[in-house]
């Protein structure tokens, strides 16, 4: 009986984890679509596993926001910097024939990109 409970708990945790991954990927896809120079040139998106970090502080976020990345618009509107841990997700993609990779930092609700590099 206990082993059945462990299996059910494991399945529930797995499904919850997959839901967060999917939500983060969708948020990043929307962000890229809205902020890259030419979204039609983006293809082959591949995401790493979603992770959390507490090693990103306000000054690092400021630097990432100022630098941006190649092929992205300047002056992107970002939300306020949230308190606490951030989620991060790496996306590898093809832009106009070149394979690129960016790391995106998201709020705890996975609804907004706070910064990226």
Question: What does this entry look like structurally?
Answer:
With 117 residues, the protein is of the alpha+beta class. The chain has 2 helices and 5 strands; from the N terminus they run αββαβββ. It has helices spanning 2-35, 58-67; strands spanning 42-47, 51-53, 86-95, 98-106, 113-116. Strands 1, 2, 3, 4 and 5 form a 5-stranded antiparallel sheet that branches. The longest helix has 34 residues, at 2-35. The protein is globular and about 55 Å long. Mean pLDDT is 88; it is low at 10-16.
What helical percentage do the residues reach? 25-40%
Tell me the series of helices and strands, N- to C-terminal: HEEHEEE
- How far apart the termini lie comes to 48 Å
Mean pLDDT: 88
β-strand percent reads 25-35%
- Structural class by SSE content: alpha+beta
Q: Biggest sheet, in brief?
A: 5 strands, antiparallel
Multimerization state: single chain
Number of strands: 5
Number of alpha- plus pi-helical segments: 2
Which residue ranges are poorly predicted, with pLDDT under 50 across at least 5 consecutive positions? Answer: 10-16
**Which of globular, elongated, flat, extended, rod-shaped describes the shape?**
globular
Q: What Rg do the Cα atoms give?
A: 16 Å
Please specify the SSE layout and strand pairing.
Elements lengths: L1 H34 L6 E6 L3 E3 L4 H10 L18 E10 L2 E9 L6 E4 L1
Summarize the structure.
Helix content is about 40%, strand content about 25%.
Write out key terms for the chains shown.
117 residues, alpha+beta, five-stranded antiparallel β-sheet, 2 helices, 5 strands, 27% strand, globular
